[in-house]
What does this fold into?
Amino acid sequence: MTQPSVILATASYDHTIRFWEAKSGRCYRTIQYPESQVNRLEITPDKRYLAAAGNPHIRLFDVNSSGPQPVMSYDSHTNNVMAVGFQCDGNWMYSGSEDGTVKIWDLRAPGCQREYESRAAVNTVVLHPNQTELISGDQNGNIRVWDLTANSCSCELVPEVDTAVRSLTVMWDGSLVVAANNRGTCYVWRLLRGTQTMTNFEPLHKLQAHDGYILKCLLSPEFCEPNRYLATASSDHTVKIWNVDGFTLEKTLVGHQRWVWDCVFSVDGAYLITASSDATARLWSVSTGEDIKVYQGHHKATIDEWTKNHN
It folds into this structure.
């Protein structure tokens, strides 16, 4: 079977990962994931592999294969892996876990290469576009910048004491970082280069986006320019799209019946895909706020997804 031009992958608490033909909504491959639920999915930069973050391991699957087995397993976390991502060349992977650590893995060698202690359950980790700093957010409300060159924590912020940082996102050009918390608040900072290599955070905006938890915040990609959006997915069943210029509300996406755990923009920022505890993923038009497609097939909460275009 030829690969669809645009693929969507979703994972669920029903212990499966599903691959969908994005345009038709047809599920064409299901991988059983019996060991645990999947907390997060991420695609490698070359679009060849899909990382599934579970409890307490990370498994790497071949996107273009039909085989059910992972091609690699990463096993030194001791609790739920909540964040996973890749360096831009795909040489290494980073992860964050409820065991309180951030880890770096060389994809060409077994085992964990580095470990950083956050001293609280890590909910979210993002890689700065400079590829030399990781930013993590934890259950105690700490945001930490890990300088990979100096191999140390270069900056620590606590936007709201004892309020868990649920999600972090960095603008593609490294100009902004947004942290979303359990009280429905987004904190926005300008990122400024200091005299050293260290990034400085300059407070820019505080956005009361939702009344419930924000489970995911995401800034739009480079090819969305000149429009810049912030998407916030919430326990209030909605996703809101904010214009970064002034942080005005552009659209509220209504249709999910339960908590919305995850969202991802299409490459050009014209579409948003969301995943919810109502066991569906939905494709939305950012310009109209309408849902175009519903992906149904999971039996429990759906949490993560990504899209890709085959060139």
User: Anything to note?
Assistant: The mean pLDDT is 92. The longest strand covers residues 199-208. Residues 16 and 32 are 5 Å apart (CA to CA). The two ends are 17 Å apart (CA to CA).
